Amino acid sequence: MSSRECVLLGTASQVPTRHRNHNGYLLRWDGEGILFDPGEGTQRQMLRAGVAAHDINRICITHFHGDHSLGLAGVVQRINLDRVPHPVTAHYPASGGHFFERLRYATAYRETVQLAQEPVAQDGVLAETPAYRLEARRLSHPVESFGYRLVEPDGRRMLPEALRARGISGPDVGRLQREGSLGGVALEDVSEVRRGQRFAFVMDTRLCEGVYALAQACDLLVIESTFLDEDVQLAEDHGHLTVGQAAGVAREAGVRHLVLTHFSQRYTDPGEFERQARAAGFEGELTVGADLLRVPVPKRSA
Question: What span, in angstroms and rounded, lies between the C-alpha atoms of 212 and 221?
Answer without folding.
Answer: 11
